[in-house]
Specification:
The protein is α/β, with parallel strands linked by helices. Helix content is about 50%, strand content about 10%. Its cofactor is Mg(2+).
């Protein structure tokens, strides 16, 4: 007996126990609705997806080719369409997640309007987007299953037992569109209590993985902007603990914490770390502070700050902003210390924000981290802030030059130029780009590759293309040829937009609730029938 038939039997027994009061309830219809809604709460989703991530992390540890991927999505519909597309093209969602970008929340979801990525948006908009994404993913389940159930009823009415068995198998083995979300909590939106409270809301909405960065909360910057200010390790570890407590309180015992370090590009700190003895974490943090050695008290001016650093008295360089600066060139060492410290104090995955996509650079840091934590692995931002074309063309140029290959035909500073698009160098750079995720996962410990804000760019690009044609000479043809005809021929389900928005699903529900008296939208006059 199939799982569907089991559900029908169980609900039939419930119905019969009501002594006729549930005569209006059809067990078959109730069973359909149960199977179309696998997750009743966000915590159900968080627990389910945490297990998936843990299994994927173990698979990666055994075989680095088993890396995972995601795209940042700023609206539930965008996330839904991404997962529908993945299932259509690849047959499975395995290894594919969603990323919730704080950048896109700030730029697209704040009630203040578009904002820079500086934690100025409402913190409640983050769990609200998580809930919205999962609402749309659950609706994708209901939408696809509803079509399967309709097909099943047709096959049963036609007496096609082979088709019935096939469809029951598809229903029983249905793969949900619900996948893990790695959710950006920025720097925690305040102190460790504020971080805990927001983390709880995010987990209750369904987040199984929370990404936390080591910047100062109230002066947080985008990872690809200047002026980043980091906090001492003790402050960051308190927030890691806060997120873990939130997971444990809510019963998501295998929730994932992604510890992000911005130290590679952050040259400033707001605080001198507390230190009790030479070599402790505070002392290690302070050892990177820039300053001048002094010989006597006469070298100290009013307002100067002096610390003991590596056994010497050092007058720190403090800026007009009251911030202290780190020694130039210390970023990579600080990254390594940050990562080891985070993993040894409760983090599960790392995020190293870099200024370019360079496998060798990432590997050089990860290899040092793995000397202390052998199974260290990364979530890596394949950022749209990188000029990928120029970066990889310059990397190929440098590699060829080092090999002694003649590169005189190329101007390294101008390799973005269209004149190089058909060149041998450009072709090789595109090959490096195509293989970047595979190579970086093998050589640099990257478990998860994500693009933070790709759908921000795709929305702008597709809208520009449509507007250019529609308001220009193409007129209506711009939409017909550029959008609708492609939807039809490429099998994009949104061509039947009424169906995707839930029209057929709602019709079936109305029939469940009202029987023959249901006023349905999907009759002969519904123009959706033009699309087959």
């Amino acid at each position: 007996m199939s799982a569907f038939q089991d559900e029908i039997k169980a609900i039939t027994q419930l119905r019969e126990a009501q002594s006729g009061k549930w005569e209006g309830i059809n067990p078959r219809h109730a069973a359909r609705m149960r199977l179309q809604n696998r997750f009743n709460t966000g915590l159900d989703i968080a627990r389910y997806t945490a297990r998936i991530m843990r299994e994927d992390m173990a698979a990666y540890d055994a075989d680095s080719s088993q890396y995972t991927q995601s795209l940042g999505c700023w609206h539930g519909f965008i996330g839904q369409q991404k997962l529908i597309s993945i299932k259509k093209h690849f047959g499975s969602t395995k290894g594919r997640y969603l990323y919730l970008s704080g950048w896109m929340v700030a730029a697209l979801r704040s009630e203040f309007g578009p904002l820079p990525d500086q934690s100025m948006h409402e913190k409640t908009s983050v769990p609200a987007l998580i809930e919205e994404l999962y609402t749309f993913l659950k609706q994708a389940d209901a939408w696809e299953l509803n079509h399967l159930f309709r097909d099943l009823e047709e096959a049963q009415q036609a007496g096609n037992e082979v088709k019935v068995k096939e469809l029951e198998g598809k229903i029983d083995n249905f793969e949900t569109h619900v996948v893990p979300i790695i959710a950006d909590i920025d720097a925690g939106f305040g102190n460790e209590e504020a971080t805990y409270l927001l983390a709880k809301k995010m987990i209750e909405a369904g987040a199984c993985a929370i990404q936390l960065e080591n910047q100062v909360s109230d002066v947080k910057q985008c990872g690809h902007q200047d002026g980043k200010v980091t906090v001492p390790h003790a402050d960051f570890l308190a927030k890691i603990n806060a997120v873990r407590y939130a997971f444990l309180e809510l019963g998501v015992n295998d929730g994932i914490i992604v510890a992000r370090t911005d130290s590679l590009g952050a040259g400033l700190t707001q605080q001198i770390a507390v230190t009790n003895e030479p070599g402790d974490l505070g002392d290690q943090y302070n050892s990177f502070l820039d300053g001048d050695e002094i010989a006597s008290a006469s070298d100290i001016n009013n307002g100067d700050v002096v610390i003991k650093q590596n056994g010497k008295l050092v007058k720190l360089k403090r800026l007009a902003s009251s911030l202290y600066q780190f020694r130039k060139g210390s970023g990579e060492d600080r990254v390594v210390l940050d990562c080891i410290t985070s993993l040894q104090h409760g983090a599960d995955l790392l995020w190293i924000e870099t200024e370019k996509p360079h496998v060798g650079q990432i590997a050089s840091m990860v290899n040092r981290i793995r000397e202390a934590v052998p199974d260290a692995k990364l979530v890596y931002n394949n950022s749209p802030s990188f000029n990928w074309t120029l970066n990889f063309r310059q990397q190929v140029f440098d590699a060829w030059q080092q090999e002694g290959k003649d590169v005189s035909a190329y101007d390294r500073a101008d390799l973005m130029s269209v004149e190089y698009d058909d060149s041998e160098l450009a072709a090789e750079a595109d090959r490096w780009t195509r293989n970047f995720q595979k190579d970086a996962s093998r050589e640099a410990g990257i478990f998860h590759h994500l693009i933070t804000l790709p759908t921000y760019h795709t929305a702008a690009l597709s809208t520009d293309n449509l507007a250019k044609g529609y308001f220009g000479d193409e007129g209506m043809l711009a939409y017909v040829a550029g959008v609708q005809r492609r939807e039809i021929r490429e099998g994009i389900a949104t061509v039947k937009h009424q169906d995707m928005a839930g029209s057929n699903l709602g019709d079936d529900h109305k029939e469940f609730f009202s029987g023959e008296g249901a006023l349905k939208a999907g009759g002969k006059d519904n123009t959706m029938g033009q699309f087959g």
